[in-house]
Design a protein that fits this description.
Distance between the termini of chain B: 40 Å
CATH superfamily of chain A: Immunoglobulins
CATH class of chain A: Mainly Beta
Largest sheet of chain A: 6 strands, mixed
Number of domains of chain B: 1
Number of helices of chain A: 0
Largest interface: A-B, 29 and 26 residues
Helix content of chain A: under 10%
Radius of gyration of chain B: 14 Å
CATH topology of chain B: Immunoglobulin-like
CATH class of chain B: Mainly Beta
Strand content of chain A: over 45%
Oligomer: heterodimer
Shape of chain A: globular
Structural class of chain B: mainly beta
Number of strands of chain B: 11
Amino acid sequence: QSALTQPASVSGSPGQSITISCTGPNGDLDIYKSVSWYQQHPGQAPKLVIYDVSIRPPDISDRFSGSKSGNTASLTISGLQTEDEADYYCCACPSSYSLENFMFGGGTKLTVL
Amino acid sequence: QADLVQSGAEVMRSGASLRVSCKASKYTFINYYLHWVRQAPGHGLEWMGWINGYTGATGYEQEFQGRVTLSRDTSVDTVYLNMRSLTFNDTAVYYCARRASMKVVGPHYALDVWGQGTTVTVSS
């Protein structure tokens, strides 16, 4: 059902960097107003870590960064820490028919080895 | 710190109707939208719909159109999710989450505050 495509899983060792990709339907993310990213630990509510493609909320570590290139948005986590192990979801607000409707990617499970 | 507090867990019979509440505090309710997102066990996040805290206008994901109704009571800064004709597939954790309107500083296209979630179990 997800209109946004993410890898099912990624992994990395402490101190390394990883990148999670998010691709729009038909490979075109440009029609979307904005992209945000959410972190979810087991049993907890999601938490916003990146919005408007690359902006970090004040309480989010600068190890988290976002970008978009062509058809793909990306979340990069540098200097991996064990507490980064979680599920990550991209989210887009489409501009094609409504500025208020959102859609999520299928989620990516990050494992810190 | 803005907060969203949701009503407690529900166990429902198939075919029944559900009501979940989401009470906002420590921010100006009418300056924000409230969205609803659900997560079935072992699955990802599924966006359901939104309500404008000021106007009461709503929007729904097509899958939920006609079966879900969002409403709000500005006197108690609370939003309600009503869902009818429940089936087993509606078993999920339901979250409310806030999105800023253009009247205030953003983020305007992201969900920056989330409720704790309401677990809904539908049985036959």
